[in-house]
Write a structure and sequence with these properties.
Elements: H1 8-23, H2 27-38, E1 42-49, E2 52-63, E3 66-69, E4 76-77, H3 82-95, H4 117-120, H5 125-129, H6 151-158, H7 175-189, H8 193-205, E5 225-228, E6 231-234, H9 244-247, E7 250-251, H10 253-263, E8 269-270, E9 273-274, H11 278-285, E10 289-294, E11 299-303, E12 308-312, E13 315-324, E14 327-334, E15 339-345, H12 352-364, H13 371-395, E16 412-416, E17 420-427, E18 430-435, E19 442-449, E20 452-457, E21 464-471, E22 477-488, E23 498-508
Antiparallel strand pairs: 1-2, 1-15, 2-3, 4-7, 5-6, 8-9, 10-11, 11-12, 12-13, 13-14, 14-15, 16-17, 16-23, 17-18, 18-19, 19-20, 20-21, 21-22, 22-23
């Protein structure tokens, strides 16, 4: 007869796991139903509670062209979750006394320049990491910026970037400033940002399937998708290159569980080993910039260093999203509940929000709201609004017009100090634009009306944009204007309409 001896620790573990099993009973079926409702090819979800992994699994398949199933070890591009990792890397250097949060950037990167000389001399590392410099987007999940150039060349062009808000007077989300922060890490540590994270963060945390380059992905990696013209299709994987500190990390649910545990409970500690000082973690998790007000939660929203700060159900919430071409990721940390949730999908979707609320409510023992149905109804309404705005834009097209010159008259090189060179070509009766002397950044022009064209990127996942030419006093093409979309209203409906854009004027050379 076998005798089973139950220790106090074993019994406690048994009851904890049983409680979690009851709280999350039926979650598999619920998530799968939501995945089908939202039309997501594949996704993965993980939950940490009281420093224990209580849930981690995949749903669906790696991609429409790869029917193998997603699991908790499938790699996803997690985009802006990279920002908290860059901030943590900086925190390690702060702990070592090699840098201070309030050091001026120019003291570590002397060639750093913005369009305002006084601001250039005032910007600190904390400013970079809390989105309070006032310089916004140059690249995002639809727009690449000089993807084949170096970080050094990016720094040269950065000095021509206009301010969207006065310095330290608001919240302006900026991948560009995180790229600069990565350069500070390199100058101070003497290591590349990529090697620093691998050696000082990923390895000690046991994040064995985490990397910073798409070249290091293996066979169990999700494939990116995007809805284009009403059809979900595979798209190219994004290589973040020199801007990696803002968004280049690829990782898995199991590895992110270790990242969550490192940030929850006693922040900076994993498996009873302190990896970074508590005071440093307090600064990373604490507010550095006011970012908004959540009317639903009646709570102030702020930004720490790589983390958004808010509230859910009256509980303090640390969170961040990550969107890169064909991938969405979100992480929630609810410290008062010692609860962490993370989810990645292989297409753009807002499905993650109802999933997070549903899981948090289940763990907290709250009355269950049908978040999936509610959010999906809101999504359909928002999408219809975006579709109508796009149709309104297209209805404004003036029919029966033609360009004021033969197409060959528009051929030439055009220049903007920030966006550099745009080369207009005419081949086989079609105008095209090549940006930055980069064959991957080519747009084909479709005549729209008058001297305005709708431009189609060579990479269809980058969608469309409008460009137009203006004339000099002799009536000849003198400038090219390009309407860059920095954030569309809803990507599924297209790159326009948008409420965050920039018009760039390229002067003919």
């Amino acid at each position: 007869m076998r005798i089973i001896r139950w220790t106090t620790a074993t019994l406690l573990c048994f009851f904890v796991l049983t409680a979690h099993a009851e709280a999350l009973d039926g979650l598999d079926e619920w998530i799968e139903n939501e995945r089908e409702r939202w039309g997501v090819p594949g996704l993965a979800v993980a939950v940490v509670h009281n420093d224990e992994l209580v849930y981690a699994r995949g749903f669906g398949q790696l991609g429409l062209e790869d029917e193998r199933g997603v699991d908790a070890d499938t790699q996803f591009g997690v985009a802006s979750l990279s920002k908290a990792m860059t901030a943590t890397a900086m925190g390690m250097l702060v702990e070592e006394g090699l840098v201070d949060w309030d050091d001026r950037v120019i003291d570590h990167v002397p060639e750093f320049r913005l369009s305002d000389d006084w601001v250039t001399g005032q910007v600190t590392i904390r400013d970079l990491l809390s989105h309070r410099v006032g310089v916004g987007r140059l690249f995002g999940n639809r727009l690449t910026f000089m993807p084949d150039r170096s970080r050094a060349e990016f720094m040269v062009h950065l000095r021509h970037h206009e301010f969207e808000q006065p310095f330290r007077q608001g919240y302006v989300y900026s991948n560009a400033m995180y790229t600069v922060a990565g350069e500070v890490v390199e100058r101070v540590s003497g290591q590349s940002w990529e090697s620093f994270l691998a050696e000082r963060l990923f390895s000690p945390l046991g994040m064995t399937r985490t990397n910073t380059s798409i070249d290091d992905l293996d066979d169990n990696a999700a494939l990116p998708h995007q809805e284009i013209d009403g059809e979900l299709v595979p798209i190219e994987r994004r290589d973040w290159g020199y801007s990696g500190p803002a968004a280049a990390v690829n990782t898995t649910m199991h590895d992110l569980v270790r990242w969550i545990r490192f940030n929850l409970g006693e922040p900076g500690v994993l498996d009873d080993q302190r990896l970074i000082d508590e005071d440093v973690m307090v600064r990373i998790h604490g507010p550095s910039n006011l970012s908004g007000f959540d009317e639903e939660e009646h709570a102030v929203e702020a930004y720490g260093l790589g983390w958004g700060i808010g509230s859910y159900g009256g509980h303090h919430l640390l969170r961040h999203g990550g969107a890169t071409d064909g991938f969405n990721t979100q992480v929630w940390l609810l410290p008062e509940m010692d609860l962490g949730i993370v989810m990645s999908t292989n297409t753009f979707t807002v499905m993650r929000e109802p999933v997070f609320k549903y899981i948090a409510d289940r763990i907290a023992g709250h009355e269950i709201t049908e978040w999936g149905e509610q959010h999906h109804e809101d999504y359909l309404e928002t999408r219809e609004d975006a579709r109508q705005a796009r149709l309104d834009k297209e209805a404004g097209r003036v029919k029966g017009t033609s360009p004021s010159h033969s197409l060959s008259a528009y051929v030439g090189r055009y220049h903007d100090p920030l966006y550099d060179t745009a080369e207009v070509r005419h081949d086989d009766g079609v105008l095209s634009i090549r940006l930055w002397e980069d064959d991957s950044q080519v747009l084909e022009l479709e005549h729209w009306h008058h001297d305005t064209f709708r431009a189609h990127w060579k990479n269809p996942a980058q969608r469309k944009k409008f460009v137009w030419f203006t004339m000099d006093e002799d009536g000849q093409p003198a400038a090219l204007h390009m309407h860059f979309t920095l954030r569309p209203k809803m990507l599924q409906e297209g790159i326009y309409p948008a409420d965050y854009t920039r018009v760039v004027r390229f002067q003919r050379l």
